[in-house]
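To whoever is on call:

I kicked off a structure prediction for a single chain this morning and the downstream step that reads the tokens threw a length-mismatch warning. I double-checked the sequence; it's 319 residues and nothing unusual in it as far as I can see. Pasting both halves so you can look.
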Amino acid sequence: MTKQRDLRIVFMGTPDFAVATLKNLLDHNYNVVGVITAPDRPAGRGRKLKSSAVKKFALENHLKIMQPTNLKSEDFIKELQSLNANLQIIVAFRMLPKVVWDMPEYGTFNLHASLLPNYRGAAPIHWAIINGEVKTGVTTFFIDDKIDTGAIIMKEEKDITKDETVGELHDKLMDIGSDLVIKTLKLIEADKIKTTIQPEDQDLKTAYKLNRENCKINWNENLNHIYNKIRGLNPFPTAWCYLDNGDDKKLSIKIYGVSKTEELHNSENGTVIITDNKIKVACKNGFINIKELQLPNKRKMDSVSLLNGFKFHENAKML
């Protein structure tokens, strides 16, 4: 019988997505000797320092926490070496220098929320929905010197339902991913790892970092593309556009919950139509029915509540 390896794990992560995996490690009694997460950041109107979700969880569970600003600094490298870890696990962190990822005896592996090699990058869950994929998944792979290109250890697929939002899919992949990390650890413990080199293909899809520009809705695109974009950004960071409500000031609004209606029509793209206390916007091949939206400096609200206190001009347009 092969002797099980005694693992000493350093965990690196920042958002809620990473917390599920860290919790699963503790639930399975793995020895987490240190947690590395992002430095506290100013947030909110008061600009008070806010800790990452991973830091909050680590504090609650009395784990050693490190928050380096420079992953190459001599002090950080010495402190990391002092933990004497033989394995590092990365979930939603940042790119590591070789001196860090090459340190432990059994390597450094990452959990990524796509079926690699597709959707390498910062926002794989969002782009899978935005691009209308019907299937996605999670992958564990060993870190190398590029972003999300290392040798694949394990994968698990997940269907994307036709109306699923990024928030809903995020939570499902978070749970599936945390379990895949445990399965990966069991292979490493037993020294039974077999990896697959990622194929290189010019047609690979990329999970670009999201910004204000690529979250803006283009109402001249077709119905399904707009629908997928809105649900692929709901509830974070949220699709947006301008509302021209017939005055000089254009309002920047966020759009959350929507449905779609395929229908031939003669309305100009972006035209806002109010019927039966409902808001719909014309685009190619049909209408986007807005269920939830947010005006500047207002809370998110459903369309019925909005219409009780806000009047759309008869020539209102989304731009």
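Update from on-call: the warning came from a stale cache, not from the record. Cleared it. Sanity check on the structure: The chain has a mean pLDDT of 95.
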